[in-house]
Amino acid sequence: MTFADWKAEQPDILVWPEHLEAFHLLQYMSTQWVYAGIGSRAGLNYQVLHHKMGRMQLAPERFEALEDEVRTVEIEILNVEHERAQRDMDKNK
């Protein structure tokens, strides 16, 4: 499968303009997940997140707000993956 094939399979999403900065930061962070156990994500690598955000020359208030936006999405991603794993385990019982 090529990257173009993979990209064509991805659903279109709507990102509200006020969340574009957080969306782009999450895209940048997509390779910075910390894993625990066999393939289960534990969370984002905040050292990398803070380094990237530090280079963005954000005002302190914006830094904290953007960090909160990223954390909110991170938690939701982890919750969705946990629910999916739980359903898969329940199916295999």
Number of domains: 1
Shape label = globular
State the secondary-structure class: mainly alpha
**Gyration radius, in Å:** 16 Å
Strand content: 5-15%
Main beta sheet: 2 strands, antiparallel
- Please give the alpha-carbon distance between the first and last residues: 32 Å
Q: Write the H/E string, N to C.
A: HHEEHH
Question: How are strands sequenced across the largest beta sheet?
Answer: 1-2
Number of helices: 4
Q: Are there runs of 5+ residues with pLDDT below 50, and where?
A: none
Q: Care to describe what's here?
A:
This protein is mainly α and 93 residues long. Helices cover 62% and strands 10% of the residues. It has 4 helices and 2 strands. It has a two-stranded antiparallel ribbon with strand order 1-2. A hairpin with a 3-residue loop joins strand 1 and strand 2. Helix 2 (20-28) crosses helix 4 (60-91). It is globular, with a radius of gyration of 16 Å. It starts with a helix and ends with a helix.
Q: Could you give the topology of this structure?
A:
Blueprint: H1 3-9, H2 20-28, E1 33-36, E2 40-44, H3 46-55, H4 60-91
Antiparallel strand pairs: 1-2
In short:
The protein is mainly α. It has helices at 3-9, 20-28, 46-55, 60-91, and strands spanning 33-36, 40-44.
Descriptors for this entry?
mainly alpha; 62% helix; globular; two-stranded antiparallel sheet; 93 residues
